[in-house]
Amino acid sequence: MTVEQMLDDTAAHGGTVFQICDYAPIDEAGPERLAAIRAHAESLGIVLELGTRGTEPEHLRRQLRIATALGATLLRSMWTNGEDRPDAEESERRLRQLLPELDAAGVNLALETYEQVPSADLVALVDAVGHPRVGICLDPANTVANLELPGDVVARCARRTLNWHVKDFDFSRNPGWVGFVYTGTALGQGRLDYDHVRELVRPAERGISQIVEFWLPWADDVPEADQPETTARREAEWTRTTMEYLRSKNNV
Q: What tens digit of pLDDT does each residue of 146-170 get?
């Protein structure tokens, strides 16, 4: 799908925000292409956000220029990016460098919770920077792999949250009861306590967008020839179910 097709699909499901996240072609897009994407989003009444990884200043400056061209006011990133794994002191130094540019562009930077960085360390970094344009992208499903309970992560991060990746999840036993699989579900069908997260984060009151994200398993339970179509069909069903759930919970 092109970005325009993704935006059309978002609008068809009643979505009003679309985060272009970890999407390599956007990094290579020129000014005309970025302007066309922005115009298409605006014609649909959709607000754009941008997602990348890392805190290397020049990389974030490039992403900030892309965000500005798209009219995006939120840039999601992550503490690390591949082999670039700065410590807390270096990360704070990098982020402080960017504060004037974030202010000038009117863009918020939200660092995502994930298993490679303890959520307490992430909150400590954001607190150390101490600027309203630097906060957290909350995704409590990610940190389970670091043995952090989702409820603890939400309680710790809520006050600094600027963006919320709404992703439900569950555990199931492997065949033969040998081990477990940790995977995604449609919203409302897994272990995410959506009501509790919403109560603490207060997205409507604070202007925090809720970005739907899936860990969609590949449909390897059907014949190989049918797997791509079945996976796509399940994704469409998850999307419909999830958007209906969000509307019911947010009175939209």
A: 999 999 999 999 999 999 999 999 9
